[in-house]
Amino acid sequence: MIRLAGPSAATGCDIYGKAEFMNPGGSIKDRTALGILDAAERAGQLQPGGTIVEGTAGNTGIGLTMLARARHYRTLIVMPETQSREKIEALRVLGAELELVKAVPYSDPGNYARVAQKRAQEIPGAIFANQFDNLANRDIHAATTGVEIWDEMDGRIDAFVSAAGTGGTIAGVGQTLKQRDARVRVILADPHGSGLYDWIKTGTPHAEGSSITEGIGQGRVTENLAAAQIDDAVRIDDQTAMDWCWRLLRDEGLNVGTSTGVNVAGAIEIARRLGPGHRIVTVLCDGGQRYASKMFDAAFLKSKGIKPPDWLPG
């Protein structure tokens, strides 16, 4: 758990980030992968040499592939072609079979999650990991991430702020924190292009705009999100998220990814609403090197309407 000096000073609160980029696969999705794989093994769904199929923005696929290597399974990872080349290359290096598909909504049969489900049905002995609707995702975060946060903060937490993709992190952590103290506020930080902000505010998902962030945002209510105990939501634009990524790198030596920028910006917004003296926790989901071709490419950033930092060449 890292106290974030800049965000804390900007708000008069203590803002902490849980350093999930330090997991073996480099992201919080290692937990999701472990929970899903353990549950499948307990249920007898995987046999030696079997295949794990998943649709992912990258990080869950990386976690699953590392675990599959250790436990002697194969992986077929279906991924939108728009994801960073760093994640695509990482999956290939790890030995995953990789299928890249067009980035289309979940309602389209060509959506990466739907294609993965179809491939799992076509391969004898394969399982579909199904991170979006498999509650083993939520449960591993309730049993590990949430408990660790509570213990590391000595039970003194005013709010937990997190973005959501599958919803496993915010649902699982929120469940554990609220079981221990019902006063803890659980807040969704949502990028543009996602429908979850409107879902929290109005009860219906509705998406507008777009974002360069990966692995977060959602146009539907997944099974992991359906029962999540979320008190409120904030919407974070790309410029604000990226500015905090670059500030954390420049001022605190923390090279974090795009979803972390959304999380930190969301934590700052909630800290300002609560007022000085509160303790807010968020998640540092993964590292910025996984998105270097986007986060540190001035031409790409400008093409998306994002002003690069002054120190970035180009």
From TrEMBL:
Its cofactor is pyridoxal 5'-phosphate. Residues 2-286 form the Tryptophan synthase beta chain-like PALP domain. Gene3D superfamilies: 3.40.50.1100. Keywords: Amino-acid biosynthesis, Pyridoxal phosphate, Transferase, Transit peptide. Pathway: Amino-acid biosynthesis. NCBIfam families: PRK10717.1 (NF007989). This is Cysteine synthase A. It comes from Roseiterribacter gracilis.
